[in-house]
Amino acid sequence: MERLKKVWRRILFPGGKAMICLAIASAVLLACIFAFDFRNNIFAYLSYILSAYTLTVICLAAYKQVRKGIAVVESKNKHISRYLNDVPFRTHVSLYTSLAINVIYAIAKFFSGIFYHSFWFGSIAVYYICLAVMRFLLLRHANRHAFGQDQAAEYRKYRLCGVVLMVLNLALTGMVILVVTKNHTYHYPGTMIYAMGAYAFYSMITAVVNVVKFRKHNSPALSAAKAINLASALVSMLALETAMLSQFGGDDSPLFRRAMTSATGGFVCLAVLGMAVYMIVRSIKKLKELKSSTAVQ
Q: Are 130 and 138 in contact (CB under 8 A)?
């Protein structure tokens, strides 16, 4: 197990010299692809995979350096120290921040859907608005009760979030099917796709880390908040892939674009469905246990 961890650590954190080599290789390969119009062969797809890997390790390295910088600042500032060490306070701030970003993102997608006449943008906007409503419900609960204080109430909120995610997943599945069958595509203006890519990767990494990290706090409301973040990040990655295939995949590869969108869309839908089912089943089981223990007392 330790050996496997070392291998993964080596893959995800290859070191400064290796990252420089990866960045140069990715840049050269992409330049060759666009210069010589190699966008529709296996060479191009391998270079896209290498570029995605390079971006991932750079983001992870940047995250590691930021953590080191935060540790230095934490020792000198009591407010930052409280934010980093007081889990309920940090979660309150995180819920407020994610709610604000969620609403802004949904509004941007909504108006983009109107401006570009894109059903996909509009559908994503509705999806994020529903996620914002769930975050608002969790935030309202957090303002009334401390996390982990009222387990029954938190499990009811946890179950509600699972039900809403399941309904949203049905809508998301319909959207993916429509995008695949109708071959819908869209382009981000200018270099906005790179900003959206950075946001999607950052959201995905932090969401996965937080889902694992906050399991030990025994608060269903906290777990629900992190599950929502993960669902949001997964959809962001799907939207990014759709845009990248449209912008960099060329016009002569509709079958490849459909295959990739089908595979990623199917994975995202199954992952969100799995989370929703797990949340509903676990909340029902825990509520029964709490009711039984209360009846015995």
A: no
- Across the chain, where does the E strand assignment appear? none
Count Cα neighbours of 20 within 13 Å in the Cβ-side half-sphere. 3
3-state helix, strand, coil in the chain (%, to 5): 85, 0, 15
Residue at 3: amino acid letter: R
Buried b (16+ CB within 10 A) or exposed e, 192-218: ebeebbeebbebbebbeebbeebeeee
Closest CA to 249 of 1, 37, 16: 37
Asked whether the beta carbons of 221 and 143 are under 8 A apart, the reply is no
Are 283 and 159 within 8 A, CB to CB? yes
CB contact at 8 A, 99 and 136: yes
- Crossing angle of helices 220-248 and 254-296, in 10° steps, is 180
Contacts of 156 (CB under 8 A, 6+ apart): 283, 287
Mean pLDDT of the chain: 76
CA angle 232, 214, 12 (to 5 degrees): 70
**Digit-coded pLDDT (tens) for 109-141:** 788 777 767 777 777 788 878 888 877 777 776
Contact present, 60 and 13 (Cβ < 8 Å): yes
